[in-house]
């Protein structure tokens, strides 16, 4: 019997159906994988951005001076780089510009409240023992381990290496938005809420123990979500006699804060040891004529600094390269020294005297002289305030 074969058209039709079925399966598999990836990514982002808030009972502030710690943040896992030579580490622990000479005179910021709003802090580090008055977490995202930025932010009041080693630290850990790697969605309203929390904290403290300065390690940006809320909160702080400090430009107080560089082996108390910071590169010199420095600029040391470790309760880390954010705790500590000397100081008076008593650095480069100002002069600034504190002034 003669065997019948399917026609060419029927064979082509069959092949077409097989291809369609195969494409459907591939589409289904790809779509399923995509949905699983999206769900996993969403779960990851939800976990990363899960807001954490731990607050203390503020009524306890009036019952004594014991530290109120809402959450004891553990050290971050990891190891620190090996320490530099003894001389580099000792120079790095010195706040610089003659601040330790003020400490020797008893000007240490004793009893002045300094607040920092930044990432998680390793409260248990020995440098913060006896210095932390209150630690809270407010709208913090991510994990619950200490941050490098946190110990950098708080070094202003650390016991042996701080600018104001006897000031009281009020620290609020928060985050400036939400993270969906590789993207960051800023929401600085969290900072505004933290400022309002500091104002509330002050209402539970005697006047002489209240927070007088807040350091925030993120620059103001009108394009950030919540920017207006932050501006408004800063104004509320000003009305409560609290100076709020930002890196780079401060819109509310109309001044710019930047950093100074220093060779690790150069004397931190010698003005002429300082230059432009490492992270500026050659930009300062290359753009000097087209983009000169802002006239209301304050400069403080940021390079070649030693900070408490965020991985260990006893170790330290040398940071050869600093940034503008590192200038914030330095200036906050300096303001605390000024409050101790002249409790009636205001941000306006402080800024006026900083520019009046500060120094200008003259830097030589390729046969040309460049001026860099205003470098804060702690000794002259304190002298000006001591003169105002005299009874007949």
Describe what this molecule looks like in 3D.
By secondary structure, this protein is α/β, with parallel strands linked by helices. It has a single domain, classed as Peptidase S8/S53 domain (Rossmann fold, 3-Layer(aba) Sandwich), CATH 3.40.50.200. Helices cover about 35% and strands about 20% of the residues. It has ten helices and 17 strands. It has helices at about 10-50, 85-95, 100-105, 150-155, 190-200, 225-240, 285, 325-340, 345-355, 380-390, and strands at about 50-55, 70, 115-120, 130-140, 170-175, 175-180, 185, 210-215, 245, 250, 255-260, 275, 295-300, 305-310, 315-320, 360-365, 370-375. Strands 1, 2, 3, 4, 5, 8 and 9 form a seven-stranded mixed β-sheet that branches. Strands 10, 11, 12 and 13 form a four-stranded mixed β-sheet that branches. Helix 8 (about 325-340) runs parallel beside helix 10 and helix 9 packs across helix 10. The longest helix has about 40 residues, at about 10-50. The radius of gyration is 27 Å and the shape is globular. The relative contact order is 0.14. The model has no long low-confidence stretch (mean pLDDT about 90).
């Amino acid at each position: 019997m003669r065997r019948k074969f399917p026609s060419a058209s029927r064979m082509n039709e069959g092949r077409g159906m097989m291809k369609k079925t195969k494409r459907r399966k591939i589409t289904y598999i790809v779509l399923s994988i995509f949905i699983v990836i999206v769900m996993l990514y969403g779960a990851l982002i939800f976990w990363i951005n899960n807001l954490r808030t731990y607050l203390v009972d503020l009524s306890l502030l009036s019952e004594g001076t014991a530290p109120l710690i809402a959450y004891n943040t553990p050290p971050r896992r990891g190891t620190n780089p090996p320490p530099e030579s003894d001389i580099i580490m000792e120079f790095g622990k010195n706040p610089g510009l003659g601040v330790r000479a003020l400490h020797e005179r008893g000007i240490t910021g004793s009893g002045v409240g300094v607040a920092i709003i930044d990432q998680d802090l390793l409260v248990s580090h020995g440098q913060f023992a006896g210095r932390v008055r209150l630690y809270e977490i407010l709208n913090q995202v991510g994990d619950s381990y200490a941050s490098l930025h946190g110990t950098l932010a708080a070094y202003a009041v650390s016991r042996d290496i701080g600018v104001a080693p006897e000031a009281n630290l009020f620290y609020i850990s928060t985050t400036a938005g939400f993270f969906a790697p590789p993207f960051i969605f800023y929401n600085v309203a969290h900072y505004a809420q933290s400022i309002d929390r500091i104002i509330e904290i002050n209402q539970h403290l005697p006047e002489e123990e209240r927070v007088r300065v807040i350091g925030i390690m993120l620059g103001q940006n009108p394009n950030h979500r919540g920017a207006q809320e932050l501006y408004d909160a800063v104004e509320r702080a000003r009305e409560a006699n609290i100076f709020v400090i930002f890196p780079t430009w401060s819109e509310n107080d109309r001044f710019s804060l930047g950093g100074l560089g220093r060779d690790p082996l150069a004397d931190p108390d010698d003005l002429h040891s300082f230059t432009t910071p490492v992270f500026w590169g050659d930009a300062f010199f290359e753009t000097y004529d087209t983009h000169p420095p802002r006239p209301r600029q304050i400069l403080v040391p940021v390079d070649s600094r030693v900070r408490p470790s965020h991985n260990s309760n006893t170790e330290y880390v040398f940071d050869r390269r600093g940034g503008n954010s590192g200038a914030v705790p330095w200036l906050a500590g300096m303001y605390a020294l000024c409050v101790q000397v002249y409790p009636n100081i205001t941000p306006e008076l402080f800024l006026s005297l900083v520019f009046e008593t500060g120094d200008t650095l003259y830097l030589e480069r390729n046969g040309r002289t460049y001026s860099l100002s205003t470098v804060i002069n702690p000794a002259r600034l304190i002298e000006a305030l001591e003169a105002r504190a005299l009874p007949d002034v």
